[in-house]
TrEMBL record:
Keywords: Cell membrane, Membrane, Symport, Transmembrane, Transmembrane helix, Transport. The lineage of its organism: Eukaryota, Viridiplantae, Streptophyta, Embryophyta, Tracheophyta. It comes from Aristolochia fimbriata. It comes from the Eukaryota. It is a multi-pass membrane protein. The chain crosses the membrane at residues 65-89, 145-169, 176-200, 220-240, 252-275, 295-317, 349-367, 373-394, 406-428, 434-455. It is found in: Cell membrane. GO terms for cellular component: plasma membrane. GO terms for molecular function: polyamine transmembrane transporter activity; symporter activity. This is Polyamine transporter At1g31830. Belongs to the amino acid-polyamine-organocation (APC) superfamily. Polyamine:cation symporter (PHS) (TC 2.A.3.12) family. It holds the Pfam family AA_permease_2.
Length: 482
């Protein structure tokens, strides 16, 4: 009876109404998180939007790599292969485990804490690498107006100032980040709606069907699609900060999916159909030039400003995800307890500092290197997620799932096959340099977890006692009494 009561209380926190796990409650102490506001539906939609997309900035390379037709088809077909399965898995497992840490908790519950740590290490590192890209993109869009940002000391100073300023915003609170994301999202998408209206008389549909399969750069094409349409699972790492995540998270993922796909496809449709094709010019930042050719300098400046603000939104959303992931791992006893320390605004203090430091250290990489490296690490993490999703479906079918992907076990397995095949292709297309760097990072994670376990055993650093609590999924669900 005592074990049943403990598990029932654990179930209440992991599966029930509570939107954030506070392990102090399980020790009989008063909750400390209720005073911090939770994220509602609209800010959550735009946080997901910025975790995944942020608008069409960065999709230009798909036209350069494969031409208009394949670029347009890619952003229509690829979501069915990758984005929708990933979003569905996130909705099911994110509502099944509505706590900070997200995919780390999923993999830990399915495969054990060792592989949960590896998932956390690879996903956090890929997120930090990804976040190092946004100051680079920000300055790339502004360097045409301010040439000093093209290189040298001014560029270095600008990168550091941007990172420090946006990091402080994350420190001030997740709800602030969420509503800022809403405002930035509206401002970033609006110029493309205007561009579409102005471009109507100039559209020539024949331009959309240009393709030359003999000159397709498949590596650049697939990496661009993959980078612009992944990271749907990132929002799970802060599920504990969401208001009523059982209902809010699936809705937010659905609305964000529509917003992301339209936010890519419509600007590409306008840009490739309204101006004469110069395929080699379609690279990072070309949408501002397209806006100039379609409507004039005024719209070009607006697009550049929208890009700058979009990169701000992507940075703060990604940092929120990365930092709350570290907090969740600390609550699970995978990292030292000080990673679970919150600021007076309820934000993960050490998680933010570590994530910002990683971004600064990785900002030297080029755009293509950043995209390839984070894609490589992200692929390893997604394989573990797919395995955890299927494992939990097979081994614990009776555990409550507030949202359940409307497919049986066989259907779930079939759903995971196309994205897994895509992962294999992306990994195979990586350069030798990226493979070596990424595999070295993976090896560090394999060694780091035993080292942290040894430190915990020697009590050199304090770890959370939550590791001593029984894990709901480590007990046969037939004995829990649902």
């Amino acid at each position: 009876m005592k074990l049943r009561a403990t598990l029932s209380k654990k179930c209440h926190y992991n599966m029930g109404e509570h939107s954030g796990v506070d392990y102090q409650d399980l020790r009989g102490e008063p909750p400390i998180l209720d005073k911090f506001p939770k994220v509602s539906l609209l800010p959550l939609v735009f946080l997901i939007f910025y975790e995944v997309s942020g608008g069409p900035f960065g999709v230009e390379d798909s036209v350069k790599a494969a031409g208009p037709l394949l670029a347009l088809l890619g952003f229509l077909i690829f979501p069915f292969i990758w984005s929708i399965p990933e979003a569905l898995i996130t909705a099911e497992l994110g509502t099944m485990f509505p706590e900070n840490g997200g995919y780390v908790v999923w993999v830990s519950s399915a495969l054990g804490p060792y592989w949960g740590f590896q998932q956390g290490w690879m996903k956090w590192l890929s997120g930090v690498i990804d976040n190092a890209l946004y100051p680079v993109l920000f300055l790339d869009y502004l360097k045409s107006a301010i040439p000093a940002f093209g290189g040298g000391l001014p560029r270095v100073i600008a990168v550091i100032v941007i990172i420090v300023g946006l990091t402080y915003m994350n420190y001030r609170g997740l709800t602030i980040v969420g509503w800022v994301a809403v405002l930035l999202g509206v401002f970033s998408l609006l110029p493309f709606l205007v561009m579409g209206l102005v471009a109507v008389p100039k559209l020539e549909p024949s331009r959309w069907f240009v393709v030359n399969l003999e000159h397709v750069d498949w590596g650049l094409y697939l990496n661009t699609l993959f980078w612009n349409l992944n990271y749907w699972d990132s929002i799970s790492t802060l599920a504990g900060e969401v208001h009523n995540p059982k209902r809010t998270l699936p809705k937010a993922l659905f609305y964000a999916l529509l917003l992301v796909v339209l936010g890519y496809f419509f600007p590409l449709l306008v840009g490739t159909g309204a101006i004469e094709l110069h395929q080699e010019m379609w690279s990072d930042g070309y949408f501002s030039e397209a806006a100039k050719l379609i409507a004039g300098v005024w719209l070009s400046w607006w697009v550049q400003g929208a890009s700058a603000f979009s990169n701000m939104g992507m940075f703060i959303a990604e940092m929120s995800s990365d930092s709350y992931q570290l907090l969740g791992m600390a609550e699970r006893g995978m990292l030292p307890e000080f990673f679970g320390k919150r600021s007076r605004y309820g934000t993960p203090l050490m998680g933010i500092l570590f994530s910002a430091t990683g971004v600064i250290l990785l900002s030297w990489m080029s755009f293509q290197e950043i995209v390839a490296a984070e894609n490589f690490l992200y692929c390893f993490g997604m394989i573990l997620e797919f395995v955890a999703f299927i494992h939990l479906r097979i081994k614990y079918p009776k555990v409550p799932r507030p949202y359940k992907v409307p497919l049986g076990t066989i259907g779930s397995i079939l759903m995971c096959i196309p994205p897994t095949a895509l992962i294999c292709v992306v990994l195979a297309l990586a350069s030798l340099k990226i493979m070596i760097i990424s595999l070295a990072a993976v090896v560090i994670g394999l060694v780091l977890q035993p080292c942290l376990h040894y430190v915990d055993k020697k009590t050199w650093v304090r770890f959370s006692i939550s590791t001593d609590l029984p894990d709901l999924l480590h007990v046969e669900d037939d004995n829990i009494g649902f």
